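// run 5 | inverse folding | seed 20
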């Protein structure tokens, strides 16, 4: 029995690797001789750094509300990986209620990219996601100074959304603490930013898919010469997920909250698409499952063990839920 285990993080409880290890325990119990390949997944949001090798550096940069923060990132020879959430994350701002959606800045992300370039990185992979700001990338571009525009292939931006630049506030503003009036103010500012980036770099990003990630930061970086790609597809390719699935009998994936959006650009959705294309049986083990995502082979941890246990003992809860899912699969 060859089993590939490729979950995303269970946000707030387990990293992708921790979730995978819990699932692996259940697989070993079910099939002691199973050949298991663990591939932690991510889609460009927080958890991307871990999936692409983990941090080996920490530096002080500007946080989302202007206060200094220590941000983890990775430099391996001439390749770097950073996460926007590490410098400008909503969690660093204190969450939705404590955030200042107008003042929140992407400057720290620009500082991380600058640190990577100045350290000799010839390629910087920047994950978008979990951000506090909707500043159109202005803070990041200010921090980068004369390092922009980028040379082709120098910066690759990973996103998990196809939202366009000028829709960033309408789609994500509320979860960053913006009310209806603030969303309109932010949208107007994004329109102004887009005009300025087009005049400065010669690229109009207003309606380009994926440019609304991280409050428009992905669009600003695209205008400045970065490449913007599907984050889950990039992580899967680097991790060798497609190759691992060839000849596999089963793939397990999952995340903290599984819903219809999980199938559109998120890590588990990409795993499921690759499994379907390769004819590999797939099982989803998720913390909670929305009604619009219920299907055969999709198991909710909260429904198996109860919501309290799912949060208090997340690894054990995932193991138990995985065992329940595997019990439904024939030998």
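// decoded
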């Amino acid at each position: 029995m060859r089993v590939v285990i490729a979950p995303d993080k269970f946000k707030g409880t387990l990293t992708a690797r921790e979730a995978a290890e819990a699932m692996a325990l259940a697989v070993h119990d079910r099939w002691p001789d199973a050949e298991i390949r663990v591939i932690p997944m991510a889609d460009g949001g927080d958890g991307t750094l871990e999936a692409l090798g983990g941090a080996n550096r920490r530096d002080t940069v500007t946080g989302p509300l202007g206060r200094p923060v220590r941000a983890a990132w990775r430099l391996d020879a001439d390749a770097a990986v950073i996460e926007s959430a590490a410098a400008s994350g909503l969690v660093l701002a204190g969450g939705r209620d404590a955030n200042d959606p107008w003042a929140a800045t992407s400057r720290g992300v620009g500082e991380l990219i600058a640190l990577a370039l100045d350290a000799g990185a010839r390629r910087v992979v920047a994950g978008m996601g979990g951000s506090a700001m909707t500043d159109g990338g202005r803070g990041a571009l200010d921090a980068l100074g004369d390092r922009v525009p980028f040379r082709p292939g120098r910066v690759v931006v990973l996103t998990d959304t196809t939202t366009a630049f000028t829709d960033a506030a309408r789609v994500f503003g509320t979860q960053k603490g913006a009310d209806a009036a603030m969303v309109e103010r932010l949208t107007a500012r994004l329109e102004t930013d887009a005009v300025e980036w087009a005049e400065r770099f010669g690229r109009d990003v207003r309606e380009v898919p994926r440019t609304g990630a991280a409050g428009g930061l992905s669009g600003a970086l695209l205008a400045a010469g970065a490449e913007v790609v599907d984050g889950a597809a990039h992580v899967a390719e680097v991790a060798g997920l497609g190759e691992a699935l060839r000849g596999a009998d089963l793939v397990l994936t999952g995340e903290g909250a599984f819903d219809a959006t999980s199938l559109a650009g998120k890590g588990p959705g990409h795993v499921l698409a690759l499994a379907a294309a390769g004819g590999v049986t797939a099982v989803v083990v998720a913390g909670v499952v929305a009604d619009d995502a219920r299907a055969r082979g999709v198991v909710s941890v909260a429904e198996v063990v109860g919501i309290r246990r799912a949060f208090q003992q997340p690894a054990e809860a995932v193991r138990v839920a995985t065992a329940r899912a595997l019990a439904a699969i024939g030998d």
